[in-house]
Amino acid sequence: MVTRMSRLFLRTLREDPADAEVPSHRLLVRAGYVRRAAPGIYSWLPLGLRVLRKIETIVREEMDRMGAQEVSFPALLPKEPYEATGRWVEYGDNLFRLQDRRGTDMLLGPTHEEMFTLLVKDLYSSYKDLPLSIYQIQTKYRDEARPRAGLLRGREFVMKDSYSFDVTDDGLRRSYADHREAYIRIFDRLGLDYVIVQAVSGAMGGSASEEFLATATNGEDTYVRSPGGYAANVEAVTTVAPAPLDDAAIAALPAAHVEDTPDTPTIESLVALANERFPRADRPWTAADTLKNVVVWVRQPDGSREVLVVGIPGDRELDLKRLEAQLAPGEIDAFEDADFAKHPALVRGYIGPEALGEESESGIRFLTDPRVVAGTAWLTGANQPGKHVFDLVCGRDFTADGTVEAAEVRPGDPAPDGSGPLELARGIEMGHIFQLGRKYAEALGLQVLDENGKLVTVTMGSYGVGVSRAVAAIVENSHDEAGIVWPAEVAPYDVHLVATGKDAEIFDAAASLAEELEAAGVEVLYDDRPKVSPGVKFKDAELIGVPTIVVVGRGLAEGVVEVKDRLTGVRENVPLDDVVAQLAAR
Ligand code: ATP
Ligand code: MG
């Protein structure tokens, strides 16, 4: 059926919404695709719903094609399964918890590993039933700390989540590979420019995992790439560390010595003073010779907090997202002035390894950058105001409680697999595929009988696509000053037909053209509004972003209509008689 603009439930806006930070948010609201209902929560208008449904259809077709079966779980869930896996607590403030009238705890599902695992456990008991992949396209709830950028990070959003169930590790690898292939087809069809990168598994647990990131300059995720093909989320990058020295080589290093370094609370001031008063024979001191010890709080989902000191080379910043990815589900809080007052072992600006570590008097946990290997010598705090220690050697003078990937990754850093220098870019996480392994099946007791009649624990994979996020990510990828430019497969309509002028013949011709196009399988949005100026109609057409704009106007007298490509801006006059055949062939 032809959609007529005169009756369409739509108001386009000339002004940007005040809270819109990114183009997709701005344009989707202005062009009448979505409206905000509450922070991070959106209502879908007719145009938006059409795009959402088209994306769902692509996802559904590709999941079905790989042999997965669609199911649908409730969003309102019981607490017990999530308690059994620990996620009732681990999910922390991100979980929407509520109580029913009897006071029973419930939740709104943030993701459904538990429910799928239990359903399979309910129904299946033999290896002959497996492998199995099941999925749903469903609304998820997460009380995100920073809902932002419209649909990109919502508190209510649509996700396709699927889960695979296998008996063997090989089987899991096959299910994972099948999903990976399906995802490639999905994101190709969505018309997105994307990369596949290694990821950290984070709070989900499990081992191998990859993310599909849409490339976008204002994406929240940072990823790296090397010329040799290494690609990873920056959170998953492992640092290339130097080889440690053996004991004999360490013993031969100069002894550590504490020196007065007044007024050097920053790395720059320390390096300047070191070069002035304690010059090296071989080369000048640089920030990379210093060990900067940064104090943070690590807060667990149950609210408990622990002090952590992270030692990183002084020429690098601490990357909080990398650190949090390592400490998940723990989160980082700032260590405040008042906190220093309560921890006299931590001398602000002069914190050194010798006062740190679980074995030390302070008992404060101390983790270092992987570059801090046995035999590396550091210029670092001496735990007294105005004093630093030179030549403090790891493995001789101090030992940390472990290493942590928390220093920033910089362009030019070596790829961990030796495939060359890294380049950094930003993206939006569109999909995530995990080999979960047996963690959930173990926690919830999902076992089947194997070929020998022995009970074995099932191994699982978990796979997500951000369906509502895709609507916004596609717009981030594809827009210009005038509005949205939809890729053909997800556009709300194929053709935006504009009738201009006042002549009844023009409107009659446009109306029949719209009918003929629909009959030929071309979806038409027909701007039949009688008292709206051509200028306003063209502006709306560009804003809404349908790939082909057809104008029926003055040219009709010569038997032609104008066909304009929204992406290239190229216009041509096409004889009225040819236009249906031409557009149906696109
Ligand atoms: P992020 O790191 O962006 O918070 P996540 O790693 O927590 O995402 P997953 O649990 O892997 O997300 O969820 C699968 C997919 O769901 C993501 O790849 C993303 O596309 C989508 N998604 C996750 N959170 C949101 C959200 N708040 N709003 C919209 N889509 C989301
Ligand atoms: Mg993820």
Automatic annotation (TrEMBL):
Belongs to the class-II aminoacyl-tRNA synthetase family. ProS type 1 subfamily. Keywords: Aminoacyl-tRNA synthetase, ATP-binding, Cytoplasm, Ligase, Nucleotide-binding, Protein biosynthesis. GO terms for molecular function: aminoacyl-tRNA deacylase activity; ATP binding; proline-tRNA ligase activity. GO terms for cellular component: cytosol. This is Proline--tRNA ligase. Homodimer. It is found in: Cytoplasm. Residues 35-487 form the Aminoacyl-transfer RNA synthetases class-II family profile domain. It is an enzyme of class 6 (ligase). Its EC number is 6.1.1.15. One of its GO terms (biological process) is prolyl-tRNA aminoacylation. Gene3D superfamilies: Anticodon-binding domain, Bira Bifunctional Protein, Domain 2, YbaK/aminoacyl-tRNA synthetase-associated domain. It catalyses: tRNA(Pro) + L-proline + ATP = L-prolyl-tRNA(Pro) + AMP + diphosphate. It comes from Mumia zhuanghuii. Coiled coil: none annotated. Pfam families: HGTP_anticodon, tRNA-synt_2b, tRNA_edit. Catalyzes the attachment of proline to tRNA(Pro) in a two-step reaction: proline is first activated by ATP to form Pro-AMP and then transferred to the acceptor end of tRNA(Pro). As ProRS can inadvertently accommodate and process non-cognate amino acids such as alanine and cysteine, to avoid such errors it has two additional distinct editing activities against alanine. One activity is designated as 'pretransfer' editing and involves the tRNA(Pro)-independent hydrolysis of activated Ala-AMP. CDD domains: ProRS_anticodon_short, ProRS_core_prok. InterPro entries: aa-tRNA-synt_IIb, aa-tRNA-synth_II, aa-tRNA-synth_II/BPL/LPL, Anticodon-bd, Anticodon-bd_dom_sf, Pro-tRNA-ligase_IIa, Pro-tRNA-synth_IIa_bac-type, Pro-tRNA-Synthase_IIa_type1. Consists of three domains: the N-terminal catalytic domain, the editing domain and the C-terminal anticodon-binding domain.
